[in-house]
Amino acid sequence: MNLILCSENCKHQKDGYCCLEEYGAITDVISSPCAYFDEKKEGKTNDKSGKSH
Predict the structure, then answer these.
(1) CB burial class (10 A; 0-12, 13-18, 19+) of residue 36?
(2) Which H, E and C letters describe 7-28, residue by residue?
(3) Model pLDDT for residues 17-43, shown as the tens digit of each residue
């Protein structure tokens, strides 16, 4: 297991570390040095009703 420090606003970042469990699509985002960066969305919904939790 590798501990990769991360301070990006990414959905894979938790408690200062990258928690990407398996390789995803390479995003090629210019705003981040990480190839797997996926910006964390505010107001995330956890159910199909569309209500935020």
Answers:
(1) middle
(2) CCCECCEECCEECCCCCCCCCC
(3) 999 888 767 776 777 888 888 888 876
